[in-house]
From TrEMBL:
Region (Disordered) location: 25-76
InterPro entries in the cross-refs: Argos
Protein name: Antagonist of EGFR signalling, Argos
Signal peptide: 1-24
Organism, scientific name: Cinara cedri
Keywords, sorted A to Z: Signal
Compositionally biased region (Low complexity): 58-72
Source organism superkingdom: Eukaryota
Length: 293
């Protein structure tokens, strides 16, 4: 049986190995016994730092323009983190989170289907708190497919990664959780893949693993007949949240489209890893309809 704390690292490594080998046969990887449990937030006070402005009554003719402006405001610039489910890597509150190291990911935002947030650590005192925006346009966000990695530091200070050579980020066990350190940002339009795995000795004299990810251009290879165009790795969290990793393998021919969701038409289940509560799916090119254009 795999320990519950090993599931998170196993999930990301299995998804990365799946993309690297372009086959579900390569999904796997040693479980790391020091990955922390996750809990659901029960106190939204820690996630909504908006000032409680007093309500000022205004004449009706002055309230109308303000209401129209709010309706026209793009969703991505609104503070909505307090309205989504928040999980904690360690403990069940902000106070129980460790202090972030430099360039560590303080929060992960999953935008695959319904937005949800996983808190990793809290930013050091004296500096800005971890961004709660659901938008990557806050100056502190690295994007990876449908996920956003929030940093305490501004990303404009990060160098740009070189394809296949530089490590974009590393993921390793640290205490009762995982520590993700960002080293550079991938060029626009690229994807991250597992570059290498290294074993190391933890403070408790156990063997842990560090996973390094690099950047690659998106594949422009045309899909062959009966070849999957996208792979999905799905893990059901304890709080009934689906954690999904997607990997595009090839481009569909003209007048065909690749499924973007693991429940879409053209997706079939590949393998089921019951101990880790992980399922894999393969998506195949489907004829495009008029609604797709």
């Amino acid at each position: 049986m795999v320990e519950p704390r090993a599931i998170t690292v196993v999930f990301y490594v299995m998804a990365a190995l799946t993309w690297t080998a372009m086959s579900a046969e390569s999904v796997g990887g040693p479980a790391d016994p020091t990955v922390g449990n996750y809990f659901t937030s029960t106190d939204d006070r820690h996630h909504d730092r908006r000032p409680a402005n007093p309500v000022v009554e205004q004449p009706a003719q002055q309230q109308q323009p303000q209401s129209q402006q709010q309706q026209q405001e793009p969703r991505r610039f609104r503070h909505e983190a307090s309205a989504v489910k928040v999980l904690y890597q360690t403990g069940s509150s902000e106070e129980e989170l460790p202090v972030c190291e430099k360039w560590a990911v303080c929060s992960k935002v999953d935008m695959y289907q319904w937005p949800w947030v996983e808190r990793q650590c809290r930013c050091p005192s004296g500096g800005p708190p971890c961004s709660q925006m659901l938008s990557p346009a806050d100056g502190h966000t690295i994007t990876d497919k449908t996920r956003q990695f929030k940093l305490c530091e501004p990303i404009k200070m990060l160098p740009k990664c070189r394809y296949f050579r530089d490590m974009a980020w590393t993921l390793r066990s640290e205490g009762n959780g995982t520590l993700q350190i960002v080293h550079c940002h991938c060029p626009k339009g690229s994807v991250a893949y597992l570059l290498k795995r290294q074993a190391y000795q933890t403070e408790s004299k156990q063997i842990g693993y560090q996973y390094s990810f690099a950047c690659s251009p998106q594949s422009r290879i045309r899909c062959q007949r009966k070849e999957p165009c996208r792979l999905f790795t799905v893990r059901k969290r304890q709080v009934m949240v689906d954690e999904v990793n997607t990997n595009a393998l090839c481009q569909c021919p003209q007048q065909h489209a690749c499924p973007s969701h693991h429940t879409d038409v053209g997706v079939i289940q590949s393998k089921n890893y019951s101990e880790e509560n992980i399922r894999t799916y393969s998506g195949y090119c489907m004829p495009s309809t008029a609604d797709d254009h």
